[in-house]
Each structure stands twice: as C-alpha cells, then as structure tokens.
Design brief:
By secondary structure, the protein is α+β, with helices and mostly antiparallel strands. The protein has a domain of 127 residues: 3-Layer(aba) Sandwich (Peroxisomal Thiolase, Chain A, domain 1). It is built from eleven helices and 15 strands. It has a nine-stranded mixed sheet with strand order 6-5-7-8-1-9-15-14-13, sandwiched between helices. α5 crosses α6 and α8 runs parallel beside α9. The protein is globular.
Amino acid sequence: MKAVISATGLWTPKNSISNEELVEGFNKYVDKWNGENAAEIKAGTKDALEYSNAPFIEKASGIKSRYCISKEPILDPEIMAPRIPVRDNDQISVLAEIAVNAAKKALEKVGRKPEDVDAVIVACSNLQRGYPAVAVEVQEYLGTSGFGFDMNVACSSATFGLEAARGLIYSGQAKSVLVCSPEICTAHLNFKDRDAHFIFGDVATAILVERDDVAPADHWEIIHSKLVTKFSNNIRNNFGFLNHTAPEDDGMVGDRGRKGLTDKLFVQNGRSVFKEVVPMVAKMITAEAAAGGIELTDLKRMWLHQANLSMNVLIAKKVLGKNVDIKYAPVVLDEYANTSSAGSIIAFDKHSADFEDGDTGLICSFGAGYSAGAVFVRKVG
C-alpha cells in the first residue's frame, strides 16, 4: 500500500494589487503621517517615515503583485488593512469557503465525489478561529465523510499536512484525504510597515492524497519525506484570542485601528531568516535525497516555498549546482506574492504538467518555527 497525490486544486481571488498600486497607497499614508507628526519630526523626537517604491519591492523580494480578498481598504491610507464582513454563525466562514473552493477543483480533476473523501485536514498559517475546527466546517459544506481537523506549522503547514495525510492512509484511518491550505495572509500583515507591506497575498490550495489502489492511474507517488522544526522568534505573529482587546465589534475582520492590536501582526528579522534558513533547507534536501536513495541530478524540478526570490535561487544553487537555471525551481511569487503554506503547492499545481512517468521532483516548504518539510514525489502514469 502506498499513499499518492491524485490531484491538486487552486483557488485565486479575483482582485490583484500591483506593486505600483500598493506603493501609491502607502506613500499617501506616509505623507499623512509625516504631516501629522511634523513638529515631533522637526524636534527630533520622531523619525519621518520613508516612501516605498516598486523597484525596491521587486529587488527585495521578486514580488510584482499579489491577489487579495479585500482590495480597496488595503489601498486606502485611512485604513490600510483588509475589511472582510463578519458572517453569522449559520453562514460558512470565509476560511472554510475558500478551502471548499480549492477542494472542489482538486476533486473535479479526477472525477472524485466529496463522499469519496474520508478525512479533511485544514493546514494553514492563520486559522480564523480556535473551534469548531475549520476542517469540520469544510467537511460539512463540501459533503465529505469521516472526520476533519486543523493544524498549523506556519509556512510548512501544507507539507506537514501532506505527511499527516500519508500517515492516516498507512494507518488505515482513511483511503482518501483532502489537505486544504486556505491562506488569508493579508489579514495578519501590517501594511504600514515599509519593510513588510508588500510581502503577502491571499489564496487557497488543496491536495487530494489517496491510497494507490483507489487513485487514478495518473498520479504522484510519495517516495520519501522529512519534517523538521527548530524554534526561532525571527518570524512571529502574536495575534490570538488571548490578546483580542477590542471593546466592541465593528462588523469587520482585519481592523488595524483598534488600540493594542497593531503589535500583534506579522514581524520578521529578514536578514537572520535568510542567513539561517537557506543553509538549513539546502542541507536537509541534500541529506534526505541521499537517505531516500535519490540522486540530486535526477530531480527534474523543485517546487519551493514562495517567500523570497533570492532565497529560492540560492537554495536551488546549493542543491542543484551554482549554474542551475531558475526553471528548475519555478517562481510564482511574482504574481501571487508570499502565500505562506500554499506557495509550494501553487508552484506544483502550475508547473508539473510536463512530467512523464518516472520523473522525480521535490515539494519543499520552510518558514516560521523554524519549520521545513521536504516531500519527494515521482510521477506515475
């Protein structure tokens, strides 16, 4: 018995924000803030905010645009945050809805019915609530059988979820598992922070993992995997139910004007992350390829986490050789930006159609935690 990937699904929001649009809104905020604090700036008690610009963003990250669920409020210098209407408890939650959308696309690819699925895992960076589990809600609205549960390993959630699904299949708990990664990353980003206001976008992905005897003839065999975590504060988000101090409900999710919440958003020490994560991931990939009896020269492609172009280029060079073409580690963050756990799955979904029977590739994630997941796959059919 083997666990295989039968299909993937990708749901993309209809709205996109270019770097130029984002910068225009940010710079209007800078003018506003500097004007309101002109006296303090002149006295030297406060530092003036600096403008952002599109070339700076692309050079720093490789990002050119990002998709988002709520566009106009992000660009409004009076708001600079998504505004997503709160739904009644008898309505499907936003996170569950986009997970269902991605899951349906995965099922449609292989003609699978929801009732054929035995388990749902919602694996993402920021869950909308503590309980009931979003995965159980997805199960309800999608119409799957069995059970569901949520898990969070930040940017590595999808690969960790993939390995959890494989374990459920090997244990006999399920023969077909959906791993959904709905990522509303714009909701935990501080759009007033010049060094980070461009990083994230919104998206949802799904992976259908099945026992090989029920999977379609054309599938992806999981041939080796490795999961690693090492605690670090260099990427952190302190938002949670224990520090929700808003005195009233304004009917919106994502309000950044509430006192006491702006310091609970995404924060990172980018230079340290780069220095520490790149060698850690490259070393893991090299070691696990050897442990799985996989020649690095046989890897047709690596679908890496989409956080930063320079990181991916350097990891690819360390693993595949210094003169490697970036096509061996395709980039989607130029269009999608950083979508946390969904990034490597977007790359896999969009850049795997040319694989033939026997070709080998690597789905790899890395991020906050630190966490890293490497899943080696081989095309069958």
